[in-house]
Each structure stands twice: as C-alpha cells, then as structure tokens.
Amino acid sequence: DFAGAFTQPLISTRNESYSALPAALPGIQSPTIGVPSRLYYTRTASKPLAGVRTGIKDIYDVAGVKTSDGNRAWYGFYPPATANSVPVQRLIDAGAILVGKMKTSQFANGERATVDWVDYHSPFNPRGDGYQDPSSSSSGAGAAAATYAWLDLTLGSDTGGSIRGPSQVQGLFGNRPSYGLVELTGVMPLAPELDTAGFLCRDPTVWKAAGVALYADLPFYNTYPQMLQTLNFPTNASAEADSAALSFLSKLQAFLNATATTALNLTTSWAASKPAGAPATLAGLLNTTYPTLVTKQQTRLVRDPFYAAYAAVFDGRLPFIDPVPLVRWAYGDTLPESALTEAQNNKTIFKDWFNSNVLLNDSTTCSESLIVYTAGSDTDYRNEYNQPPTVPFGFGTSRISVFAEVPDVVVPVGQASYVSTVTNHTEVLPVTVNLMAAKGCDGMVSSSILALIPSKTLEFPV
Asked: Which residues of the chain register pLDDT less than 70?
C-alpha cells in the first residue's frame, strides 16, 4: 500500500469474522494487502459481488477488528467489533471480499493533508504530480480506488461531501445516495440526519452491482429524463476542463434526446416560491445548518461518551484529538440545545421546498429532470500551508443533496493539464461532472450511466 490508504489489511477467519493479515512485504509505512484471485469466484444473482475486492472506510465496524475512526486513542481504547456494521454485512452477503480497512480523516470531519492530519498520515492522491490533496473524509477509499488496479470497490461515507470530494479530485465514480437507503448500525456517526453510505470505484458496472447489494429493493429504470438543469456550469470552452465538461453535456443531451436544458438559479427560484415565513435567502436559512447538525450530534453521540469512558480509565485524562474536530466541537458547545432542533427544521424546510419545486419525481422516468454541475479541476497542493481550521459555515452546490436527501453522483468525463510546481512538468488532473436526481432515483442514475457507455457518451477509465 504505497499510497498509504489502508489502516490495516484484513483476512477472513473461520468463525465468520476478520483479523489483521499477518504478512509484510518491504516498504516504508506500507501495509501489505492480501489480494485473492478472482478465479476462485463466480458472480451469480445471489452473489453479485462474488470475488469483488473491497476496502472499507475505517468508521465501519468489521467483526473481529478494531475500528479507529482516524484516532489513535480510540483505536487503542476500544476492543474489536463483535459484529459487522449493516452496510458491511450486506456486501459480505453479496460475495464481496474484504481486503482491508481504509484511512478516514479523524471522526469523518473534513481535514486537509498538509497540517490537519496528526494521528495518521493523509493518503496520497495518485493523480497529476502525486502531491495533490486527496480530499476527505473518505480519503483512503478514494486514494486506493484511484491507485490500485487490484482493488475493485471501496465503501465510503458522505455526510457533507466525503465521497464526492475524493471522487472528484481522483477521477472516480462515486455516489452520495438518497438518504435512508441503508441502516447505519455499527457506523460511527457524524450527523444521523445527514450520514449516508456509498461507493468509490473505477468501473460503473461494479458500482451498480454494489448498489443493488447495499440498497435493498432499489427500483431501476430504462427510461430516462429528457429535461436537464445545469447549475453553475461553464458556458464556454475557454479552459480545458470546461471544454471536457461541455463536451459531456452535449453528448448527454443527444443521448437523452433532451427536450430542454435550462440554467438553474436557486437564488431566484427560492425568492419566487419559498415557503411562507421562510428567510428571504437560502443563506439565511442554511448558513449554520450543517455545522450545527454535525457538531451538536457528534459531540453528543461520539465525543462525550468517549471522553467519559477514557477519563474513567486514565485518571481524568483526555485523549488526543486532531485540530479540526476540536474546532468544530467547540463551536457546538457554544450553541443551546434548541439550535439542533432549529437546524433540523431548517433542513426539512429546504428539503420539502426543493423536492416540490426543483427536482420532482416522475412516474415514468423516476426523476422529472437531472441536475448537472461540475466542481472544476483545480490544483490543491498538499505541501502548501493553509489557514487554521474553521467551522464549516455556508451553503453551496455540494450541500444541496445533503439537505434535500437526493442522490448525487460523480462521473469522470475527461482530464485537464496544468504545469506542476512539484515536477516542473505538464501533468493532468481529472475532470468530473455531478448528476443529481429526485429522491429514490439512484437506480435510474446508475442505469443511465451504464447506458451512456455503448454510445461512447461516457468512456472509462478516464
């Protein structure tokens, strides 16, 4: 694991649990991962993931193995899990082969590679010059999926962007699913109202099969929306990344026989149709909603029980915590308990409005339209110092699906060149586009992505 993506390799034991693989190859801070041959496995209807080599973000419990949550003290303090988390068990039942647990930024809070990662070293993003930030919090899942051809699938989590960010910067298929598709028992929470389980991988066929296994009874469609809404999308091809995004949009329009493509402006839409009594702007409604939910919930569900148990054993001492969680938790401590209820209500106000006015369900195509947006393709060097961590205030494009509970999928569509300050050479970074659909339309989105491949609207790997 020269990318530093894994916390520990896994091997299945005879009692239906797992243990650390007792093997090592030469390497510095590089765990040795045991990779079984795919020839031993045959995929069937009941085992759609047979032989699929899978990495698990280290916030999910795996029976027989300790969970770290990205924190050394947590890993050392708590015993191994006695049962698999619900998402992990579903993957195992579908035939997935667990090969290791993967690094997460601490307690799944967003951290940057340069200075925020203290307990463990941030994984390496293989794209470009190899020294771009891997994004977080599913950092190990993204880095490994992008680096290793021998790894088929990684299980991550997305609360505020923790799957989509690593997928965007490393050119992967990644999904934040509709909220509530799978129970998260045995998974460390950030905010239960926002937490979701999803995948990062290179092959959309594997990604769809994993979705079938994880999201039970998910409906699939072979008829797709003919209306597109673009959001903060480039309008001209003056930059290489913009050209790749616009080229994909043009091919997508042709594939769907799109009858309309409109530029979505949430600011004007909200002003025209907002609920009675709601704030005049979305920023006024949602500026503090995300930080309130993640800080009030994680301090209550994770920090406080951990601190109390740790202090009881170690004479009142506190465990070490990285700067980012500390800053966020401290903000939560300043808020009254009523702030949590207000944040939950504000999320519901936005969700109900958005799903009734912007992204509606359809009986034939599941979703009346698709929203298309892009995160761009900018450098983010991991060797540049940044400002100290701050509270994640604000509302932007990446928070829409978080509050609206709709599926939001990253699709790699090309690459863009830049001159690296590390290598002093021209390198390339991935260009991705995101597709959002109405709630519950995850199956339609994954089916449409696979349908794009024969027409060469989408080619992979990118």
From this structure: 460-462
> Would you report the helix, strand and coil content of the chain in percent, each value rounded to 5?
35, 20, 50
Rounded distance, CA 327 to CA 391, Å?
A: 7
305: burial class by Cβ within 10 Å (0-12, 13-18, 19+)? exposed
What whole-number distance in Å separates Cα of residue 359 and Cα of residue 351? 10
> Residue 14 has what pLDDT?
82
Q: Quick one: 442 exposed, middle or buried, by C-beta within 10 A (0-12, 13-18, 19+)? A: buried
* pLDDT at residue 19, rounded to an integer: 95
- pLDDT recorded at residue 132: 98
Q: Is the peptide bond before 137 cis (omega within 30 degrees of 0)?
A: yes
In order, the DSSP letters of 65-82 are S---TT-HHHHHHSPPPS
* Model pTM score: 0.97
pLDDT of amino acid 461 = 54
Taking phi first (over 0 means left), then psi (-120 to 50 degrees means alpha), and beta for anything else, what does residue 33 get?
A: beta
The DSSP secondary structure of 286-328, one letter per residue, reads: HTTHHHHHHHHHHIIIIIHHHHHHHHHHTTTPPPP--HHHHHH
Specify whether the CB–CB gap between 165 and 156 falls below 8 A: no
Q: Where would I find the beta strands (DSSP E) of 116-216?
A: 153-158, 173-176, 196-201
pLDDT at 460: 62
Please give the pLDDT value at position 344. Answer: 98
* CB neighbour list of residue 315: distance below 8 Å, 6 or more residues apart: none
Q: Which ranges of 265-415 would DSSP assign to H, the alpha helix?
A: 266-273, 282-286, 289-298, 304-313, 323-333, 337-357, 400-404
- Write out the E strands in 225-278: 227-231, 260-263
Question: What's the rounded Cα separation, in Å, for the pair 454 and 461?
Answer: 14
3-state SS class at 377 = coil
Q: Are the C-beta atoms of residues 152 and 98 closer than 8 Å to each other?
A: no
Name the packing angle between helices 266-273 and 337-357 (round to 10°): 100
Confidence at residue 386, expressed as pLDDT on a 0 to 100 scale: 87
What is the DSSP track for 88-104? HHHHHHTT-EEEEEE--
Closest Cα partner for 134 from 435, 436, 458, 429? 429
**Model pLDDT, residue 359:** 98
HSE-CB for 21 with a 13 A CA cutoff: 19
